[in-house]
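Issue 218. Parser rejects a valid record. Input:
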Amino acid sequence: MGLRRSEIDVRLAELASRDAEIGARAKANVVRYRAEHGIGDEPYEFPTYRSAEERKVWVHKWWVRPFRFFYRHLPVGLRSRIKRVAT
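Output the parser choked on:
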């Protein structure tokens, strides 16, 4: 046989209280860790590399397509020399 409904409810209440206790301890640890290491409460914002993105955007413009086509069909040795000079 299995457990009775009242026994299950008691066990679930114990687990819920234990879970709340562990959660409260975890929140206290996070607050303590942030205070020790000088970390603020605001969420982390990833830096935007907008300038790098904007530098790449022109490569996909319509007027660059003929140049890309020409460059890609050059011999590999010539392409590597152009790349070396350009960078």
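Fixed in the parser; the record now loads. Residues 50-86 form one domain.
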